[in-house]
Structure formats: C-alpha cells, structure tokens
Q: What sequence folds into this?
C-alpha cells in the first residue's frame, strides 16, 4: 500500500505529517527502514500493519520541512512515530551524495535541499 504525505505541521517539537488515507483501523509499526523512488522524487519510510507494508511517501515538496526540522520527532496522522527517521535518512543521504545511480536531477535536489 502506498500513502502520500500531503501536509506537515511543526507543533510541540514534532513534525506532524498527515495523509488522506484513513489509518485509524490499522495498527501501524515502524520498521525503521527507508528507501527512495528516484524516478518520482520521493523518500519512502516503510510501516508495517501486520498484513502488508505501507510505503509512506515524502514527495520533494515536503523535503524542505524535513530539512528545516531535522532530528525532530516525526509522526503520521498523530497515530505512529516514524522511529529512527532521521538516522535512516542520514544513511540514505550519505549514499545518494556523489552517486549517479540515483540520477543527476534527484541527487542534485537532495544535495540542494538537505545541504549535504
């Protein structure tokens, strides 16, 4: 299942991310794993609901907020904390910088936004 972050607010020292999907009937577990979709310019945090993985997409329009509030707690729909979000993002950023496998445009956008 794919869900897309469509709103981010910074409140109470937390980046509160929201999706349109109704997740209230799901028990979501943080997997502490991230991947990217460089073709579609998304950073993806993986959640597990016990039946399937839920790919939580952070489109490039959300990256500025992630960069501005780096290392803050990140939640989705006030329901689940995305544990180790920035630790995992650090690993991805280190791998993406100077790596043409992700495509020049994607790498450039990452480097520019996250100032790496």
A:
């Amino acid at each position: 299942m794919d869900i897309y972050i469509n709103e981010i607010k910074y409140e109470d020292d937390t980046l509160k991310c929201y999706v349109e999907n109704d997740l209230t009937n799901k028990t979501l577990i943080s997997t502490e794993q991230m991947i990217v979709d460089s073709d579609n310019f998304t950073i993806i945090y993986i959640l597990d609901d016990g039946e399937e993985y839920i790919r939580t997409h952070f489109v490039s329009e959300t990256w500025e907020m992630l960069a501005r509030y780096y290392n803050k707690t990140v939640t989705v729909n006030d329901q689940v904390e995305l544990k180790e979000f920035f630790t995992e993002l650090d690993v991805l950023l280190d791998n993406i910088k100077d790596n043409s496998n992700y495509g020049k445009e994607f790498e450039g956008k990452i480097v520019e936004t996250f100032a790496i």
Notes: The first strand starts at residue 2 and ends at 4. The radius of gyration is 14 Å. Strands lie at 2-4, 7-11, 14-18, 29-37, 42-48, 53-59, 73-76, 80-81.
